[in-house]
Amino acid sequence: MNKDVLVEEDKPRGLSVVHKKLITYLIMVVLIFISATMVVFEVYEYRHDYRQMTTYLREQDDLNAEWGRLLIEQQTFGSTSQIGTRAVTQLRMFSPPTSDTIVISLPSLEQNK
Length: 113
Hints:
The protein is an all-alpha fold. It has a domain at 2-69. It has helices at residues 2-10, 17-77, 80-89, 109-112. The radius of gyration is 45 Å and the shape is rod-shaped. The relative contact order is 0.03. This is Cell division protein FtsL. Keywords: Cell cycle, Cell division, Cell inner membrane, Cell membrane, Membrane, Transmembrane, Transmembrane helix.
């Protein structure tokens, strides 16, 4: 009976070493799983942001091309012949006949001196 008492006294109180290792391993597995989940989430977010950025860059290129076309169109329609043609065709403007035209002459500056 003395041996039984000694054996019971040698056992550590609380959790055994095996239980401590098991809890430690379980905590490590949970932390690794959480870390892996976060990596997957960050990769997904990166790919989503990259797709959005490439969409914006394509849109910027399209807008730059349209801006260039608008500048060329502005230069084309800014010429005098184009203004006259558009005034007649779109605004239905016309030159008045000579009978309806009045010419006003301004006095020259040399006569006033």
